[in-house]
């Protein structure tokens, strides 16, 4: 095998997105995935306009829209009484940001990116667990569990939440939120789906729990996510997030939410972790990307989007630092990536935590939250402009954050 320009470690949505973006800039990219086959576990994923804009730039948006659903609205309801709190008109939102809000099955998005990588000629290698990373001066090297080594000008570590590269380069730990997610899909022919508006993305927010649903695959499936705080996790027990906790966590919620619980997959659940923001992602010729750099809690649905944005931003800076003979001046390209992405992702990771706290309130704070959300104008975009506009390539392009409204201002 001849030496590639770039090695990407990890074939999740982040690694595939980066491999495609860099190959599109004319680089030879080798992707190393530890699993025996490429794939994604889970059901739906939400893609806001800051991601569909990039898919469009990649020439992949039409296919993504064909595979997914472009919903009409996003509705937030109170999980206890079922009442509507606020909504986004997603067709109007598309006009504001120029690109649609899309929901898609994870395996369909993963398959789409994998096919795109195959088409442009990414060298895709499975069964390749990386066990060490090292800088070599003019480049970087990874070693596999077999002892085989691979070298390139740059190594991108897109190896997820439990990233080995993060451990070696940053040496911090994932932070447990004590929340756990259950996922599941309901086939369209069942009465539950026939009585549900598949044109809506709905989140029911409740005390220490929430429940999300939306349609997938042109309305063939209803995707459901049930998330709750685990009492066993809070008590320090090892076996937390088990199905008995699921049923108990939603006992106070409305009929529609409780009726959805039997459809959740009960043999698999996802404990929710993030990390404290890391502000240095580039370590000489090894760069973190995706969840290895910035795993968020999922409350503002931006984890995979940030990963896809990372790859796009890096690709754009490579284009700006590439000589006519094809060689890349890596130092300014990586410096430009490092200058803009960590601060954006820090904002998303910390806002995701706050958004989750707001969703899970009880008692008087829950009533104050509901009052404020009911008063919100559907067409007020002050809480989405910082996120859904064009992805910044330089720090000066990063939009202003929103101004938080204190709960105590609710009369
Ligand atoms: C319940 C839930 C809902 C979510 N909803 C949304 C949403 O609506 N929108 C959104 O944008 N995001 C969402 N997210 C977040 C999103 O799923 C993640 O942020 C995203 O998938 C991370 O992608 P990644 O490629 O960085 O990491 P991963 O998907 O974890 O991929 C890492 C890859 O690296 C491989 N790997 C790991 N170590 C090695 C190694 N040593 N050698 C070789 N390969 C290795 C792994 O096998 C894996 O394939 C959600 C997350 C959860 C849990």
From TrEMBL:
Domain (FAD-binding): give its ranges.
5-349
What GO MF annotations does this protein's record show? FAD binding; salicylate 1-monooxygenase activity
Pfam families xrefs: FAD_binding_3
From which domain of life does this come? Answer: Bacteria
Q: Which UniProt keywords apply?
A: FAD, Flavoprotein, Monooxygenase, Oxidoreductase
* Enzyme Commission no: 1.14.13.1
EC class, as a word, reads oxidoreductase
The coenzyme or cofactor needed here is: FAD
Spell out the protein name for this chain: Salicylate hydroxylase
**Gene source species:** Streptomyces murinus
């Amino acid at each position: 095998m001849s030496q590639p320009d770039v090695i990407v470690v990890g074939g999740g949505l982040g690694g595939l997105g980066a491999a495609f973006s860099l190959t599109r800039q004319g680089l030879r990219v080798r992707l190393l995935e530890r699993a025996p086959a490429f794939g994604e576990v889970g059901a739906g994923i939400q893609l806001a306009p800051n991601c569909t804009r990039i898919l469009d730039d990649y020439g992949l948006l039409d296919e993504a829209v064909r595979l997914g659903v472009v919903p009409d609205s996003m509705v937030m309801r109170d999980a206890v009484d079922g009442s509507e709190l606020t909504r986004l008109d997603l067709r109007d939102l598309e006009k504001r940001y120029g690109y649609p809000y899309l929901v898609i099955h994870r395996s369909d998005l993963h398959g789409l990116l994998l096919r795109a990588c195959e088409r442009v000629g990414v060298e895709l290698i499975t069964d390749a667990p990386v066990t060490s990373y090292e800088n070599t001066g003019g480049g970087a090297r990874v070693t596999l569990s077999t002892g085989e080594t691979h070298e390139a000008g740059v190594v991108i570590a897109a190896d997820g939440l439990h990233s080995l590269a993060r451990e070696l380069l940053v040496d911090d730990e994932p932070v447990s939120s004590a929340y756990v997610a259950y996922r599941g899909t309901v086939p369209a022919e069942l009465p539950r789906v026939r009585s549900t508006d598949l044109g809506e993305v709905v989140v029911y927010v409740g005390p220490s729990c929430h429940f999300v649903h939306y349609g997938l695959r042109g309305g063939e499936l209803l995707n459901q996510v049930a998330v709750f705080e685990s009492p066993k996790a809070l008590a320090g027990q090892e076996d937390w997030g088990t199905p008995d906790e699921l049923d108990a966590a939603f006992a106070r919620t409305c009929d529609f939410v409780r009726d959805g619980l039997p459809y959740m997959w009960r043999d698999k659940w996802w404990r929710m972790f993030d990390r404290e923001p890391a502000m240095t992602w580039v370590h000489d010729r090894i760069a973190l990307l995706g969840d290895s750099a910035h795993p968020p809690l999922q409350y503002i649905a931006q984890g995979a989007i940030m990963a896809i944005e990372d790859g796009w931003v890096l690709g754009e800076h490579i284009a700006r630092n590439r000589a006519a003979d094809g060689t890349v001046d890596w130092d300014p390209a990586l410096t430009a990536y490092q200058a803009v992405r960590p601060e954006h992702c820090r904002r998303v990771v910390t806002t995701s935590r706050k958004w989750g706290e707001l969703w899970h309130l009880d008692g008087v704070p829950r009533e104050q939250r509901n009052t404020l959300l009911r008063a919100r104008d559907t067409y007020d975009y002050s809480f989405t402009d910082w996120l859904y506009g064009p992805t910044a390539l330089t720090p000066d392009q990063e939009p202003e954050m929103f101004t938080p409204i204190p709960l105590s201002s609710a009369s």
